[in-house]
């Protein structure tokens, strides 16, 4: 496509809402995804540490 001005480019031939909305949603998802992954990883590591501690305590109480 060829645009004669910046306003024609941003209008995207009448599909601006769909095109720029799609870009916006994609950018938002790409920004939020690493945050969600980091939180899930932190929670998982914390849960695993608690589980290992509980198992170690149970094992020690069985030995006593």
Automatic annotation (TrEMBL):
GO biological process terms held by the UniProt record: cytochrome c biosynthetic process; cytochrome complex assembly; heme transport
One Pfam family per UniProt: CcmD
GO CC terms in record: plasma membrane
UniProt keyword list: Cell inner membrane, Cell membrane, Cytochrome c-type biogenesis, Membrane, Transmembrane, Transmembrane helix, Transport
Sequence similarity: Belongs to the CcmD/CycX/HelD family.
NCBIfam families: cytochro_ccmD
Name of the protein: Heme exporter protein D
Organism: Azospira oryzae (strain ATCC BAA-33 / DSM 13638 / PS) (Dechlorosoma suillum)
Upper lineage: Bacteria, Pseudomonadati, Pseudomonadota, Betaproteobacteria, Rhodocyclales
């Amino acid at each position: 496509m060829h645009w004669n001005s910046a306003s024609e480019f941003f209008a995207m031939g009448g599909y601006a809402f769909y095109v720029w909305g799609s870009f916006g949603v994609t950018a938002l998802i790409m920004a939020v995804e690493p945050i969600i992954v980091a939180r899930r990883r932190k929670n998982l590591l914390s849960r695993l540490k608690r589980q290992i501690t509980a198992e170690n305590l149970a094992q020690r109480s069985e030995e006593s």
